[in-house]
Design the sequence.
């Protein structure tokens, strides 16, 4: 962490930008004022809060979100305010967003075992994108309240006691039952844009263990009962496969096939992209991923356990089809799932965990609403207790089955969604495999060609591709 100023100078940018937005909107009339108020007010409030009470991560998130919205509003500002004023206001908003990224980097303490990011305009812009995403998630993440909060607390305590009684807390691998073979999935041809693919689906058959709290609620959710996957394959039946697991809020064919298409198009692999429970066509909320992180933590546990169950059935099906080798990779939440899969499923050719979450409890407590988390702690559930609950699905609690030379992790030194200590801790648990760092935010690896080149080299080294 750099030396900190009592009043961060960069806070002046959103403060002045907010004043300009509010002044211009007031001059334009009542309707423009109402429409521009959230952006102008957001810039002013986050700038003032950062200036007076620097250190709260949510200030930068709100600042970046307001700035990003102000930049996107440019086409709508021109008719009302004229080109010059519109460009000026959008420019101020963009500068405020980048300032949020810079402030976030400056306020981040050094993490032992993690390379320090080199400050730059590009780094600040990349981190600003992370802050925008977190700003939007502020509005979406909510924990149970009232009677639901008391019910969740009872379930957490009950589930931990149940896991201990079954011996799963000491032996998490025993929690994962061997699923039945997948014999006849339904496969349909489909297209997203110019990409033709196969849509695979089947009945999951997953059920949480008998007597485990939250079991009946999970089984009452209909969309997760059907497993889905997107498939890109070549004509050769024995060609190697790579299983690519989607990240949080992904799970849609148009996104996932583009995110992982490189392995099919460039490396010539067959690709299977499982859809995580509560994502894409398995979602239960308005947005993909709703209910997986936040909400009931038992749903998170069962969602992740079902993901492993479903993917293991899919891998068995691939081997039935003649797959010569099967590797696995994933991004973010998919990186977590890949790391867990590598400790449960034997025979994987490799495991590549990209920008992976390593500890779900740590993620809850970093990004969850502070006041609600404090209330849960008051009721008797804190981060340590949730971490114990998640032991049965934690990649940090199980030994990887993939050989050391076939493991790879990559992550960003300035990632705000998955803080770099997750990558460090997984690398330590995995006995220091190949670990690639890039200077950037959560999705900054796309801008660093060394990351994909490093992943491709691992796949060649393990003979998954040539």
Sequence:
């Amino acid at each position: 962490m750099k030396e900190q100023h009592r009043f961060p100078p960069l806070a002046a940018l959103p403060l002045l930008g907010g004043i300009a937005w509010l002044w211009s909107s007031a001059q334009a009339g009542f309707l423009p004022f109402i429409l521009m108020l959230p952006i102008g007010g957001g810039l002013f409030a986050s700038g003032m809060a950062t200036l007076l009470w620097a250190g709260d991560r949510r200030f930068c998130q709100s600042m970046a979100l307001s700035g990003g919205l102000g930049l996107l509003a440019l086409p709508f500002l021109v008719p009302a305010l004229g080109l010059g004023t519109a460009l000026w206001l959008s420019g101020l908003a963009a500068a405020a967003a980048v300032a949020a990224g810079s402030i976030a980097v400056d306020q981040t303490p050094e993490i032992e075992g993690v390379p320090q990011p080199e400050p730059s305009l590009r780094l600040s812009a990349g981190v600003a994108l992370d802050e925008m995403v977190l700003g939007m998630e502020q509005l979406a993440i909510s924990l149970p309240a009232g009677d639901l909060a008391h019910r969740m607390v009872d379930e957490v305590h009950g589930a931990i006691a149940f896991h201990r009684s079954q011996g799963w807390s000491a032996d998490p691998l025993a929690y994962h039952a061997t699923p039945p073979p997948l014999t006849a999935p339904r496969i349909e041809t489909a297209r997203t844009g110019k990409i033709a693919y196969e849509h695979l689906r089947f009945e999951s058959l997953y059920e949480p263990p008998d007597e485990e709290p939250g079991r009946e609620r999970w089984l009452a959710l209909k969309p997760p009962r059907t497993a889905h996957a997107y498939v890109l394959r070549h004509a050769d039946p024995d060609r190697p496969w790579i299983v690519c697991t989607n990240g949080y809020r992904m799970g849609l064919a148009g996104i996932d096939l583009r995110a992982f298409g490189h392995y099919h198009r460039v490396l010539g692999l067959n690709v299977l992209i499982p859809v995580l429970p509560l994502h894409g066509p398995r979602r239960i909320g308005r947005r993909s991923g709703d209910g997986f992180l936040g909400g009931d933590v038992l749903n998170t546990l069962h969602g992740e356990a079902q993901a492993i169950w479903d993917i293991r059935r899919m891998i068995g099906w691939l081997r039935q089809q003649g797959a010569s080798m099967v590797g696995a990779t994933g991004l973010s939440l998919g990186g977590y799932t890949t790391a867990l899969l590598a400790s449960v499923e034997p025979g994987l050719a490799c495991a590549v965990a990209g920008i992976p979450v390593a500890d779900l409890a740590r993620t809850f407590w970093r990004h969850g609403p502070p006041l609600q988390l404090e209330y849960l702690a008051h009721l008797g559930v804190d981060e340590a207790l949730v971490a114990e609950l998640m032991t049965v699905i934690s990649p940090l609690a199980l030994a990887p089955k993939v050989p050391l030379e076939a493991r790879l992790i990559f992550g960003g030194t300035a990632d705000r969604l998955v803080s770099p200590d997750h990558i460090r801790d997984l690398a330590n648990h995995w006995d220091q495999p190949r670990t690639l760092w890039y200077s950037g935010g959560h999705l900054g690896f796309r801008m660093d060609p060394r990351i994909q080149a490093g992943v491709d080299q691992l796949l060649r080294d393990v003979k998954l591709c040539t």
Remarks:
- The chain has two domains: 9-140, 147-461.
- The radius of gyration is 23 Å.
